[in-house]
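Project standup — Tuesday

K.O.: blocked on the structure for the chain from last sprint. Re-posting the sequence here as requested.
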Amino acid sequence: MTRDQWAIFVEGGDDQTFVESLVEHLDLDLSGFEVKQIGGGVNRLPSAENNIQRRYDAGRKIAMILDADQDIAMRRQEVTKQIKDLSPPLSEEHVFLLPDNCRAGNLETLLEELAVSTHWAIFNCLDVYGTCLLQASESYLPPGGKGRVYAYCEALRVEPRDTKREYLNAGWWDLSAPVVEPLSPFLRSLST
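H.V.: unblocked you, prediction finished:
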């Protein structure tokens, strides 16, 4: 293993599958990247410390791609605190918060925006369904991010399970869409 190889830590299997697919789509050398799950959000970083340390000791540089969730400023503060407590401490420049490192959201926010435009009607129908549910009873919960992405896949009759989604299928996902910026440059910066 050489020093220029990266271990990218992500939250879960869906994130891992997506990042590996995007690395391949960007035609980056896959041998330079190892994508590993931490099994949850920022609060799981301390339990992943041994795994991070092993990758570092093996000569890997460390990067993270995590969800920003509802408040990106608060998430960035939490991540900054957590990565400074890790051994070795990680650089903030090697942490990316989904969907775009600038706003609240998560992988599902990005995926919904990467859906091929010819299939946006699926999300429009889900919006109508959600409105209908809330009109029927305020106690009903409209489908959220994961549910919406799952429904998108089911409507297209494609594998909905997150670790088996085929993000490289250009008929379903547009990995070249402008919204994937700045994640693409972030990954490219790790390959230089």
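K.O.: great, moving the ticket to review. The CA atoms of residues 116 and 157 lie 15 Å apart. The helical segments are 13-25, 49-57, 72-85, 107-114, 120-136, 145-155, 183-190.
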